[in-house]
Amino acid sequence: MDLRLPIIPSKQTFAPTKAPQELHLEAICIFAAIGFFLDQDTYYKDKIVLSPGFDYSLDENGFVNKAEPFFNWFYKPQDDSFESVIDQFTNLFESIIAEQTASKKVILPLSGGLDSRTQAVALKQLDRPVFSYSYDFENGYEETKIAEAIAKASRFEFQAFKIKSGYLWDKIDSLSQLNGCYSDFTNPRQMAIFEEYSGMGDVFSLGHWGDVLFDNMNLPDLSHDEQLKVLKEKLIKRGGLEIASDLWRHWGLKGDFQTYLSERISTLMNTIKIDNTNARLRAFKSKYWAPRWTSINLSVFEAHAPISLPYYDDRMCNFICTVPERFLQNRQIQLEYVKRRSPDLAKICWQDHRPYNLNNYKYNRIPFNLPYRMKNKLKRMYKKSTGSPYVQRNWELQFKGNSNITHLKKYLFENGLDNWVSKDLIRSYFNAFLKEDLQHAHAINMLLVLSKFNEKEANG
To answer: CATH top-level class for 82-215+293-363?
Structure first.
């Protein structure tokens, strides 16, 4: 069987190998540290995920006979004006969305940011029927107000949802089946409204990865080792190095985790033949991060309707490799696209720079933003004093509070996880989380995933 994997696949494609049929403990340690598996790694040594941008030939048993890349990330900036690049982006972006949504009612998740706003502009230009929605956290920032303003200006249907405390425990079985335990369970907050998706429309238009492709890290030219350091800082979650190192030692693996991780990342970096630091790191993230992290929970949407991702399109990936880095700084292309195509949407608050919008966000600095910052801080302090602390992350709603703690204890201590992770190790992280939740939330998240993976494998 012949198979072509997109440059950024929207799902994992597995294949068997002739390696030993045993847990890939080194890969699981990396998973614990960064929240996703690297390259072709899976939970088992005898199973891999096929690489993006490759043409494959598989035998009748699914083993790889031949693998050849049809795309390698590159950086060849064209000598075009900014106006020309905007025109190219406009034509390409709207053409892709037109193809993906032709004769369909579109389901558009809206946020207060840029990526979904650019989609709203294109869908408005194309006069597509759109059902849009948004959600915010209980006791969190009311992101739905910005989304609703965008929907109203675009004349889209709109519905707001609230992410409630403790929804996870009724959804965790379904979510672990959908994402295969290849991601944590609190980041995909779309699972909170899983039942609501039915009947919304014919196809999802999702803005994933626009923020990576159309921005840069504003880094100077760095050496390979300096780039490695930057990547590790970006990849490793808070507390991730600690839990991964503890698991490494607990399982008696050779060497040490930090050395292993650095060598793996360095080897993968060497597959990207780009001199420009910003373009190289973007390529690394697009090649190894997007398919194994961002794509994993797209399955939640796809369980209800087909998905389309304009920023994942192969043509968009090729286009971004030709755009000069100076045009990608600070999201210039997306900003200019919205301002040119839909000035009314540009006037609506930009969440990352609230209370400013796309026209005046540069005032989001001292002293101009001091009044808003002081007001916002006082509001959070008041909420905390009334017993309703400000919520910024989904795990705060799913892991904190007596009821949530009871569920956590059940999965961590009564679900067989101690068959391969020491109960003492689990207990130490659980107790540490109770004392300092922010530092240890990621570790608890990953132990919960390993618990569900263990249950899934035990039940066949």
So the answer is: alpha beta
DSSP letters spanning 22-88: SB-HHHHHHHHHHSS--TT--SBTTEEEPPTTEEEEE-TTS-EEEEEES-----------HHHHHHH
Q: Per-residue pLDDT for the chain (460 aa), expressed as one digit of tens each?
A: 999 999 999 999 999 999 999 999 999 999 999 999 999 999 999 999 999 999 999 999 999 999 999 999 999 999 999 999 999 999 999 999 999 999 999 999 999 999 999 999 999 999 999 999 999 998 888 889 999 999 999 999 999 999 999 999 999 999 999 999 999 999 999 999 999 999 999 999 999 999 999 999 999 999 999 999 999 999 999 999 999 999 999 999 999 999 999 999 999 999 999 999 999 999 999 999 999 999 999 999 999 999 999 999 999 999 999 999 999 999 999 999 999 999 999 999 999 999 999 999 999 999 988 888 888 787 777 667 676 788 889 999 999 999 999 999 999 999 999 999 999 999 999 999 999 999 999 999 999 999 999 998 888 6
